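As the work plan foresaw, our protein records have gained a structure token line. A representative record is set out beneath this paragraph:
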Amino acid sequence: MDPVEVGKSLRIRWKEVVEDQDESLFSLTSNCPLFIKSRGYDKVCVSEEERDFPLAYSLVVHKSAWMVERVIKALYSPGNIFCIHYDQKSSPQFISAIEGLVSCFPNVFIASKRELVYYASITRLQADLNCLSDLLRSEVKWRYVINLCGQDFPLKSKIELVSELKKLKGANMLETSRPTPYKEMRYSFHYELKDIPHEYQKMPMKTEQKKPPPPHGIEMFIGNAYFVLSRDFVVHMNSSEVVKDFLVWSEDTYSPDEHFWATLVRLPGVPGEVPRSEPDVTDLMSKTRLVKWSYLEEHLYPPCSGVHVRGVCIFGAAEMRWLLNYGHLFANKFDPKVDPIIIQCLEEKLEERQKLFQSVASSTCNKVSPK
């Protein structure tokens, strides 16, 4: 995090960055013992605190198989469980690489049902729901579930994550705020999934057809797609008729994942409820995900040292200190094609922290065996 070293990293970044191809991960995972040893999974040490507090992860991904593997490596513990949902539109090379990856672990699996995921549509929400259903059926009695995408990365070591989540004492952690008039438009009208010319994509498009109010008199809140949810909350959600009706009502809205979770945690009586009487929980107050928006740079946080994509900063190495000191659990977005050094530095820093915290805890090294 020294300014001189940051400057050196920028010079490296100016050179052409060559990303590891999906095919190389597929090739390496064809020999699971070699893959596990070469990537250091056989040296994973687990504290008693981590063993007693297993976590679940839902990863909704569509590209960069090596980046997916690096996220899993940073979070991997034999007691945790990982569900990977890949977009049905993903390349054959990516799908093969992900299938190769999961073949090497007993606690990493592919979602039993997979969606064609389209930006801002119900399919993005459904992908996480598919993983949540599978995770509930697993034998691992995880305490919390966290959803991730392929451009997220942790800012806390595994033992720090457990320590932070234990402090919640069954509460959920996510953004949940009262909607602005602009955000109300996203669920007040019927949206239809339509082709976008020249982009070979589909996107929800607003119609003039007004929607009825949400079922059961539900009061709406808005947030983002990221959550940290307790097992009790997910179990309740999975069996609730109110939740099922609300999901059906949300199917023709714009970006339903940005109101679905934020609204459900405010329902009276749900496990880990955020009472409606409490003030807004903004994205900077919730520790789930640290995202840097271009229009708030120089006001709430320093400028992006990477690049912007749709108003979101893809981080560069100069943001290392800011990312680690802000207090969030994860950050978005990272891309090895933009700045590979920030990802490598975070990997090394989290390993340092894991060893430091485990040095004062009761730890044992568990050798990971391939399937």
Q: What stands out?
A: The chain has a mean pLDDT of 94. The longest strand covers residues 201-210.
